[in-house]
Design goal:
The structure is a homodimer of 240-residue chains. With 240 residues, chain A is α+β, with helices and mostly antiparallel strands. Chain A folds into 2 domains: 139 residues, Nucleoside Triphosphate Pyrophosphohydrolase (Alpha-Beta Complex); 65 residues, Winged helix-like DNA-binding domain superfamily/Winged helix DNA-binding domain (Arc Repressor Mutant, subunit A), CATH 1.10.10. Helices cover 22% and strands 28% of the residues of chain A. Chain A is built from 4 helices and 10 strands; from the N terminus they run ββββαβββαβααββ. In chain A, the strands form 2 sheets. In chain A, strands 1, 2, 3, 4, 5, 6 and 7 form a 7-stranded mixed beta sheet that branches. Chain A is elongated. The interface between A and B is large, with 59 and 59 residues. Chain A binds a DNA duplex (30 and 30 nucleotides) through helix 4.
DNA sequence: CTCTTTATAGTCGTAGTGACTATTAGTCGA
DNA sequence: TCGACTAATAGTCACTACGACTATAAAGAG
């Protein structure tokens, strides 16, 4: 309780934010990693992040770090989601660090120019994001799970898409994040039946790789929730 | 990023946990509140909580505080869920406090004997949990929303029930948390059709208030997820 | 052309569910 | 002891959503 100020010696903690910045490149989920130039975990890869400044909230700090690490001028429209806070005593060998973790979703993936203090920053395929420093493997896995779960009942998937996209591209986003194939006509029916999920760009059509019939072009709609949800073909429901 | 140790003057923060301890009493959602005996917000009600000790995680601290505030001997089996972390610079007028918020669900509600430093602790109906200290109104609302959402796709509702309960009681839990009435036969069908949600206690039956046909008694099952989900009759799906 | 590729349209059967009605098993009050 | 009342449980019916399909349209490649 908060009346304990004078009673407890409230130990000071260092507070950081850690970011799982996700994007899709060439049909595969990628995550932004930085190479550590100092001990501990020197030479290991880690999630970008940094200390909370005295005058900012965790969300503000996360957005600032996101801008620094990606080099993007405008990160105001990007989806940033607080995951949870990691506070196990031993998670940083040097000192007591409590870290607020965020997931960020980017549509396109400009190569990061290590603007921050990172020795090197790079997009790494999610599957090859080997053992990371600290508990960042856990944070990254939690981010993936959260994003996958939110795809079921929100319109979050469009955050991975450029401003204009085809339904095939949107389906690829789902398939890549969930790691499962989806039936194309059924996916299409579901998306179009959900009001506000996507809206057609009149008259626009685009070829999806040079071949086949050009696909209609859509924009993200105004809806944020998905009712009823678009459930992933999960472990459940199978003949156990 | 975490290599910034020597560069940034990483300001120390006080880290606390705040608990939204929820229970059902007489068919209404109640929350455990403590009366503040010190400035600021002296005399106001607040969520229980306290500072993180140097050697414990936020989860450990939350469980410790929960035991202290409720006076319960065994809080190991209780559902404790990290909500999110609140870190706005001005949320505590005295100092920079970052708070990790949790929601806790209790089946029965023993009157708390203010074991901690709380001047007074009391169960307060959710609706009458007037303006709270700090940003605790927001935390409490977030807890309610999170629990309501989790009811849709998990078996969490049994956390509000005693070890043995009737389907009518379980339905009341849903109705109270969601604030909507549910059709009894349909609710029953749905719960029984979900394997592992509840399991029958053989031969047991109980009257639900002295009247009517005695109801069969159930225990919480082993399942944790609900597939397909039990969606609340929401704002969506209505003729807009 | 025709073959391949991709988008789009539509069909069919079934699980899930909302809105009901009917029946059963108790208590309470006259 | 006999209804009236109450609550639990059983069952019906129609409609929606969805998985698994087949069919057609529109492009490029050869």
């Amino acid at each position: 309780m908060l009346q304990g100020y004078d009673k407890y010696a409230h130990e000071p903690f260092a507070v950081t934010v850690d970011l799982a910045v996700l994007t899709l490149r060439e049909g595969a989920l990628h995550v932004l990693l930085v190479e550590r130039g100092q001990e501990p975990y020197r030479g290991h890869w880690a999630l970008p992040g940094g200390f909370l400044h005295p005058d900012e909230s965790a969300e503000t700090a996360a957005r600032r770090e996101l801008a620094e690490e990606t080099g993007l001028a405008d990160v105001s429209g990007l989806h940033l989601e607080q995951l949870r806070t990691y506070s196990e005593p031993g998670r940083d060998p040097r000192m007591r660090v409590v870290s607020v973790a965020f997931a960020a979703l980017l549509p396109d993936a400009p190569e990061p120019h290590g603007g921050g203090d990172a020795a090197e920053a790079r997009w790494v395929p999610y599957d090859k994001a080997g053992p990371l420093a600290f508990d960042h493997d856990r944070i990254l896995a939690d981010a993936h799970e959260r994003v996958g779960a939110k795809f079921e009942y929100t319109c979050l998937a469009t955050a991975f898409c450029p401003p204009e996209f085809t339904l095939g591209e949107l389906q690829q986003v789902y398939e890549t994040v969930w790691g499962t194939a989806l039936d194309r006509p059924n996916f299409r029916r579901k998306v179009l039946a959900t009001p506000g999920f996507v809206e057609a760009v009149p008259g626009a059509a685009r070829l999806t790789g040079g071949r086949g019939k050009p696909a209609a072009v859509y924009r993200a709609g105004t809806a944020t929730a998905l009712h009823p949800p678009l459930l992933r073909p999960s472990r459940e429901g199978r003949p156990a």
